[in-house]
């Protein structure tokens, strides 16, 4: 039966009162003692008084509830409406009985399934939950409301009271306000006390020159503007009218200021009124409205405008064609180094090179003929023989049909030009090595390959072997020093026979012509390998770095820079795969390998969407008893063309393309779902181990993802084990440590997979809150006969024992290996000796056959 808000007439007290009435009537016939009758009467009177008081409380509650002008609902913790006031009945336009006893969705059918989650969370913290939603009336019409929900207890049960305030009128007022701001031709910007832009209307965007979608806040950075008052005097930030309106809490009306936007060399004038906006205390303004109009046109012919141009180092000029007179402002004369002012345009441009004089003369003739304006950047030689650059802008007076007057500005842009040249060089140069950067080499390579006389270009793609290991272990400072030293040695080896660029982190590119010397690319590659063969030193540490080099030649291996580099890259990877410290030329066979890789990546990207992945589960067993203690989830790919593919066929591709993050997320979710299915089938909690890619670990908040999945499937943390590669050992960043700590706090098991194959950084291993190690099958397969593998297994076992960590051996395939591992003290193992990866149903049957009992402690 649906729970309702209690009615006093249906309460236990009322039932007891009716029972006492019946007893009194019976006492008249039963000749009960007087004392008993008196006691019954007193009890009846007390209960009657209680009922009257309860009814009075109910009436007061009802009066208070109905006195609230906004809809108020009393709601059970599960979302059932228990009561509704009169305002709610009127607002929703339906009888109370159609609402009371129904779920809250009857008032808002658009609520998501889990909408009560954040409400419960806020109420459990003692907070009020506020949200804006759209409720529905009986006729299906909607209206916006702001709902405030608070919690309380009634007779030991949690309840909620929700007050819904109709926002329709506010929305209408806001719509009219926005329409007004968007339609007026006065710029309006609202600032807060930190001068952050809260809002700006379209007229403001136009006035300050903002493009659609551009941030007004970024455009109004104080450092990008020079602000002057009406007399051309500079204003500090504290003297800006907007700042003063905030500081003094007063309206600053009709103030004319000049704005010079430094990045675009743009000068404009505005008349601005600033109105402070006060909060409820009425003392301190929290915001200020700046309302302004562009008055640049009115100021253009004013002497104050000329003074402001001088402040911004912009000079003015005017050529009166009728009188054949040229006028320069003082600032223009200073820029050109001309005193007195030249009397003709020919005299003005005499200091420019012949090509620039011709450009300016053409621009002026075109302006005279068809109007408009011109904007030129010209080189110029001052009278003191100092070279400079000037920006010259000219335009015809639009009110003069005969173009008798041409006016404009002059600006010294020498400093900017020098800065641009410096930036151009910087933009082409890698700052660490001083070589060309990626963009520059692409431009140069394209230019050479487009030249019909230089189509025979070779590219050497150079990748430093083991660079990342050194960079991670010794630090970025050592890595940077190594890159700089390697770049210097490569430059020495190339010896001017080609262009050299740093193409990526530890990748370099050499582009050279080979028409005159066909063997040049191979000779340069050999010289680079020889130059890198000598040991490098860093802080008294000595280490060796080799390189893998791929060579591709145009036009045979590519007629565009991208294809040529791509093929050189493929050749480099083939060289690295075959043997490091070598070079490899691109071949048609490599082209096919590249095509196969592309095919694999394309199909891999679609595999998850097509449902082609599935998981198998390999038992992890107690080596002593052979009983299953947990399982490792292993991914398989069932492709419609190639059949079932093991991870070693596609995981490396997924790591390269970044698809491993998406695939890893699918594996984690599917493993949790399967663990929940096994639990629901009566098998209890089977701990499932899942491999987590390093990219997946650093690319998302893993702890939050795991917490969400455990909650979704109702699993304890002990049901999940995460296996990480040794690469995470060197990541002692705060986020890494936080993720591990949060996962461990949830009860999730944390294991380092294939321990001993990679970094094996014991210093980092000691700091991470992990539970165990997995002994790589690379070492297990050699025991007990291979002495090196035996030594490694003993070392790893000793490390695990000394640090109090669990240990699981992978790849156990023979009884001799099991016996060796038992003698070594390894408690848990997995491998084909016990079972391959099993389908979920097969794994469940194995569990049932041996009477599985969860044994989390075995790990």
TrEMBL record:
CDD domains registered for this protein in UniProt: EAL (cd01948), GGDEF (cd01949), PAS (cd00130)
Protein name per Swiss-Prot or TrEMBL: EAL domain-containing protein
NCBIfam families in the cross-refs: GGDEF, sensory_box
All copies of domain PAC, residue ranges: 374-425
Superkingdom in the source lineage: Bacteria
InterPro entries (UniProt xref): Biofilm_reg_signaling, EAL_dom, EAL_sf, GGDEF_dom, Nucleotide_cyclase, PAC, PAS, PAS-assoc_C
Gene3D superfamilies according to UniProt: 2.10.70.100, 3.30.70.270, EAL domain, PAS domain
Pfam families to which the protein is assigned, alphabetical: EAL, GGDEF, PAS_8, PAS_9
Domain EAL: 597-851
Domain GGDEF: 455-588
Residue intervals of the PAS domain: 57-110, 173-214
